[in-house]
Amino acid sequence: MLYKRSTYALYCLHEETARDASSRQQVFAFSALTGRPEALEMDQLRALHLVPAERWSEPETLQRLVPGIEPGGWHQLARSGLVVVQGSGDPLLDELCRRHEQLDADAWSGLAAVSHFTGRWHNMHHRIDPTEDRRKRDWGMLDAQGASDFLARHGQPPHHFHTIEGVSDRHPLPLVKRYGGFWETLSKRRTTRNFDSTRPMSQDELSTVLYYTAGWAGFLDAVDPVEHRGQAMTAEGVVENGAQLVLRHGPCRIEV
Q1: What 3 state SS string does 119-144 have?
Q2: What is the Cα–Cα distance from 67 to 61, expressed in whole angstroms?
Q3: How far apart are CA 102 and CA 232, in angstroms?
Q4: At CA 78, angle to CA 73 and CA 79, rounded to 5?
Q5: Which of 61, 117, 180, 185 is geometrically suited to a Cys-Cys bond with 32, CB 3.0 to 4.6 A?
């Protein structure tokens, strides 16, 4: 087995004050791999600091770097998404390792990944066990018995056109139809997260998409400095005039 520290984790120190004015410090770690916070002891935090994050380490190396932690302790930190383990044979640890490799392949910023995955709503969906065979985990696929148990416990979801009972007065809004090129284009707009990898874009199509989504659109008079329109928000949370493409051989950056 090989180990390394995950770069997709954020650590914070929280100080709690009791009624008797005594204080207690608690370290919390937020991992993008698990999407949940974990309480840590200071000894665990010190140990994590000594684990290399840029290369894999063998168990003997970790034992030499941090002699106070046994393999079981590293596996506990791995289940919290703070250490990545390669070749463990444990379904959960293998899945967390796969997630880490996917974040690397997609060139995620560490802070952006932590913010995105720990900020998701939890316990809102009934999904199949993440440690099961990935071939059985298509999006939206539910375990039949688990779905039945979930519905029996929580009931059916609200109707698509759910109405609230007991409302004394209702004011229907008028149906206003707009015509023209802009409104027709808006009505035809579709959102998709699935793309056909067998149909490449032409150079003109790529240029059009980049220009109208992240290109310069003009100038605004400002006190200082002169601002430009057409900025785009990146995955790192930075507003800038640029676009990033994910190609088959890896991400690249294009200035527009």
Answers
A1: CCCCCCCCCCCCCCCHHHCCCCCCCH
A2: 9
A3: 24
A4: 100
A5: 117
Q: What is the 3-state secondary structure (H, E, C) of 87-114?
A: CCCCHHHHHHHHHHHHHHHCCCCHHHHH
Q: Which pTM value belongs to this model?
A: 0.54
Which amino acid appears at position 158 of this protein?
Answer: P
- Whether residue 242 contacts residue 214, with contact meaning beta carbons closer than 8 Å, is answered with yes
> CA 234, 235, 239 angle in degrees (round to 5)?
25
By the 8 A CB rule, do 59 and 71 touch? yes
The pLDDT tens digits along the chain (256 residues) read 899 999 999 998 887 776 777 777 888 999 999 988 889 888 888 888 888 899 998 888 888 888 777 767 888 899 999 999 998 888 999 999 999 999 999 889 999 999 999 887 766 555 545 445 444 444 344 566 667 777 888 888 777 777 777 877 878 889 888 888 888 888 888 777 677 778 888 889 888 888 877 776 666 555 544 444 444 444 444 445 555 555 555 555 555 4
Identify whether the C-beta of residue 150 lies closer than 8 Å to the C-beta of residue 126: yes
Furthest CA-CA distance within the chain: 73
> Residue 49 in contact with residue 69, Cβ under 8 Å?
no
Number of continuous H segments (helices) and E segments (strands) in the chain: 8, 11
Rounded distance between C-alpha atoms, residue 4 and residue 62, angstroms = 9
Residues 6+ apart with CB under 8 A from 244: 107, 234, 235, 251, 252, 253, 254
| Burial per residue of 174-192, b for 16 or more beta-carbon CB atoms within 10 angstroms, e otherwise | eeeeeeeeeeeeeeeeeee
